Amino acid sequence: MSNDLSNNTSKNISEYSGLQFAIELSAQSTRTGLTRCFVGILRQCYQLHAIALYRAEYGQTIEAKRNLELADVRIVDFLSSADHEPLPLHGIQGAYRSVTDSTPVEVKNGRLTTSYFPIHGCGNVCEILAVTHKRQTLLNLELLQSLLTLYENLLNIFNLAERDSLTNLLNRKAFDKTIVQIHNKEHQNFITRSQHHFVYLALIDLDHFKRINDQFGHLYGDEVLIGFARLMEQSFRHHDWIFRYGGEEFAVIIEDVSPEHIELVLNRFREKVEQHHFPFAGKITISIGCVHIEGGAPSPLTIDKADKALYYSKEHGRNQVSVYETLLRKGEVVEPASTEADITLFQSS
Fold it and tell me: Which of 304, 296, 293 has its CA nearest to residue 334?
């Protein structure tokens, strides 16, 4: 691609300045607003046939080893309609290099050229910008790269706001947004992609964590939390979502696991934690409560069910896994009634 500008592109760009770009982008108060503003500026500056911005669903990062090899991980264009269009990374020549080496790649298709630019966040590629233009359209790469860098820097501010500063896991704010997205009707294909596809929410509590803080101090207590977070990252899959829910409580959203295996999966993790030696603290145990996420159900209702299962584990000896549906069948818990307050408690941004 050439660094020269077409006459029409030059005319559009002359109406702006770098300062104006920065003012417009930095004035956005939400990630969605930032994205729309960025795309709007690109459309005004360039004669583009099409523009798309791809992100792994529910805020995951785009990793070559995961997204090029696993068919069940969707990279979707979130500028499109609710019927998201996935980006088939494995079918794009140079996509692996683009994601791993952070270099843009071009794909030519007749009179059109699509350029893919990786955008960084959370220590990895978090989005991919795809601009499609006619072969004769000339792009100003220097300006485009400056806009990408500005957008990337501002995007990282939003990303950092959704990361726990101690463990670097996704935080409670990110959890609230993710659970609402999963329940949202426009994401029902995520819940019901196949008759064997299930999604579970598990809440995990470190047993007697207060004793660790009291005996060794909060500094060593923080080290336990960091070590536990790393165990979670090592134990769960790339396409599961791991959160620090608050204090010594964590959450994980587990995709594509059957009702017959969810307890086995969580017990395997519980046993791994029990066998792990934490510096100074030694051995610790965890209690877990989980529930199947049903499409269309209010998010607070799902969280309440997982919390009831967690409470049951803690009240019946700790160091165990309790599945809400199993407890319900046994009559150990009572199905909570859905209320209007449940439905309006969380609002997606």
Answer: 304
